Amino acid sequence: MAAPPELAALERVPAPTASAVAAALEEFWPRWRRQPQMATLVLRRLSERRRTRLAMLVLEQMRQNEVETNIYHWNPIIYTFSQSSWQEGFHKLTLAEAWSALPDVKSHTSVLTAQSRAKAWQSALLAKFQKPQEVRLHNVVLGSCTAWVHVMQLLAGMSTVALLPDAFSYSAGTTWNFALLLAKDARCSAVELDITNFGAIIGSACATRNESHRSHASHGSWRAGLAWMDLAERDGLRLSRPAMNAAMEGRWRAAAAFLAKSPPPNEVSFTSAMSACQEAWEAALDMFTKFCVVQCELNTFVCNTATSALGGSGWRAPYLMLRQMQVATVEADSVAFSLTGGFHYDWRLSVSTFAAGQDRSLPSRCTKLPWRHALLAEQEAAAEAWPLAALLLARSVSRRVGSAAALHRVAEAETKASLWQRALYATQTMQRTNLETSNILYSSIIGSVDWAAGVSLMDSMRDAGLEVNSYICSATLKTLGPARQWAKSLELLKGNQAVTSFCLCAALPAFDCSLWRRGLAVATDATDAAGRSSAAQICGEGGQWRWAGRLLEGIPMDAVSFTSALSARACGGWRSSLALLKMAQELRALSLNVFNAFLGALNPSAWRWAARILGREMASARLAPDVLTLAAFDALDSAGGGCAQLGRLEAEAVSSLRDRIAESKRQKAAT
After folding, report:
1. Long-range pairs, 211-217, Cβ under 8 A, ≥24
2. Phi, psi torsion values for 141, nearest 5 degrees
3. pTM over 0.70, yes/no
4. Cis peptide before 604 (omega within 30 of 0)
5. Does 172 reside within a domain?
6. pLDDT score at 3
7. What is the pLDDT at residue 397?
8. In total, how many domains does the chain have?
9. What does the alpha-carbon distance between residue 535 and residue 568 come to, in Å, rounded to a whole number?
């Protein structure tokens, strides 16, 4: 839906002031006087965008320009203020009444609902909800009350204003200890209690309020439910299944009694009763047996509920339930296997349980579950989990689960566990069980070991007949870099045919600044910008900026190459850096990183060039400064003795950066 023109005019207001709002809406006042409902959409849109201050200014200007204001204009604003604070909502409700806009049911409901969420039922009692008289308003206040005495007073007060309480009135705020008193009050108020009332009140009376009073509240809950059911039978009401199912949420003994006297039970009746059993797994098993006897359809949901209830007996009963599901041709989903596997005290049995699964998401659970239990077991048991995981993955292949994806999950679990020896043993076990092994698995293992083990693993790959590609070579070279094993890196690069520029970039960190000549010799084989840029960075760290410049000659220069060259020229003088910047400008390879690298290469005496770059060059390239740019200029400003021109440009850059951040926040809020 297109935005109204009034809203677009208000969005162009620079600051929300009364005069600015009046000027923006000047051309719309005549139409609003004829059709006041046109302002309702504008106020609703402003409230949805949390522009409450602007909406209040619009209301004030409507009053001053003789435009009718009614409660329909106020309701969106009252609702928005009530969402943040019920006091603000109540203040706006009072203000609307002072402006002769009589509140309706929607206005009062917004404030009372906010008071109910804030547990401010005392203030809700004092609210002016007598006008207009609505059952819905009374029900909101009833739901917020925590003292049953006030509940009784409110119910009695409803009859004095000729309001008929409904089922929600008698169930809101109800607890088991005065449920019968409400029934007597309902009869005194000439309210006929039908099965709908009983179903709502039974569900409220049987609910356990909180965990801290679990034993007291739960015992009272199911006794109150039984009392309500007896009262319904004396009145000649036939209890329906929803009423019985609501009552079964109490204690398991009461659930068994409800199930005995209920009409022909259905699936919901039995699942509610089994859920109420909790630790009493014998009663749950008896209810599951009765479920099978009464010829109800046995499905996955019922079996999962029974499996969860049987967890108190240990792992054997859920395991037998899982086997019984397979015999009865009931599909066992991932929930069933998760419940059964979670009850095992031995992680080996959990692995065996998950191995029998048919769900396609089980391999990820299989690779995680053994290690979760193994962390609590001994170190030896944890080490033995990998062969079982390999066996599990072998079974997953026979169930048409992708072996490559399963192997990748094993590699991820192995990397987090840092047990690469067991991962390697598992890989060999997979090969013996005719499982496909891939280079991805080996590269993951190599990436988590030290450099000596990585070289050994690469040799074992050749012995196993696997191809040592560029990914394996790069993973091995990355392990050699932190250890500064430059000699081994040279040997690996010369003896491998799968060396690419990607491998060279992985090998160059092994050459520190004192070995820039050897790094330069390695980088001569690189033909792309990435490999040459890495070599130029090493030469720059060694102070050999001239060699870095020669190295970058003859290759296509991009933003990455210029950034590396500028970083290397930092020790060679700002004039050479300026020449590189002009070259980048001619080749149209300018970027914000290039400018930041140029600023880092400047010495403090060249702050005038920095001011020129920020004032003209970056503006012509349509590049806005970032945090790194401002940090570089701040350092140059301090070294230059506080140049006024540089300070002014830096202030403009800060203002531009703030505007970009604010615009980004506005776009995010709009979407």
Report:
1. 217/176
2. -70, -40
3. no
4. no
5. no
6. 73
7. 43
8. 1
9. 10
What whole-number distance in Å separates Cα of residue 471 and Cα of residue 443? Answer: 7
Residue 614 has pLDDT above 50, yes or no: yes
CA distance 196 to 239: 10
Checking 81-87 for CB contacts under 8 A at 24+ apart, the result is 81/52, 82/110, 82/111, 82/113, 82/114, 83/114, 85/114, 86/111, 86/114, 86/115, 86/117, 86/118, 86/120, 86/123
pLDDT exceeds cutoff 80 at 117:
no
C-alpha distance across the termini of the chain, in Å: 15
**Domain limits for position 626:** 602-671
Integer Cα distance of 475 and 446 in angstroms: 6
Specify the DSSP element, H or E, that contains 369: helix 362-374
User: Residue 21 falls within a domain, yes or no?
Assistant: no
List pLDDT tens digits, range 580-612: 455 455 444 455 555 565 555 555 555 566 566
Q: Could you give the C-alpha distances from 225 to 44, 133, 248, 270, 393, in angstroms and in order?
A: 46, 32, 9, 17, 51
Report which DSSP code applies to 671.
Answer: -
**Structural domain includes residue 617:** yes
What b/e string do you get for 205-232 counting C-beta neighbours within 10 Å, with b at 16 or more? bbbbeeeeeeeebbbbbbbbbbbbbebb
Sign of the four-CA dihedral 560, 566, 569, 570: negative
Across 100-116, average pLDDT: 66
**Residue whose token pair is 């209040």:** 56
Specify the pLDDT at position 333: 53
Is 613 inside any structural domain?
A: yes
CA atoms of 138 and 109, how far apart (whole Å): 10
pLDDT score for 624:
62
Average pLDDT, the chain: 56
Q: What is the mean pLDDT of residues 350-355?
A: 44
Least confident of 163-167, 280-284, 654-658: 163-167
Banded model confidence at residue 648, pLDDT cuts 50, 70, 90: low
> Rounded to an integer, what distance in angstroms lies between the CA atom of residue 31 and that of residue 6?
11
Nearest to 490 by CA among 440, 459, 524, 463: 524
Contact of 42 with 13, CB cutoff 8 Å: no
For 46-57, write each residue's pLDDT tens digit: 888 888 888 888
Instruction: Flag the least confident range among 5-14, 18-27, 316-325, 518-527.
Output: 518-527
The CA–CA distances, whole Å, from 622 to 154, 576, 607, 627 equal: 68, 24, 21, 17
8 A C-beta contact, residue 77 and residue 55:
yes
CA distance 439 to 2: 55
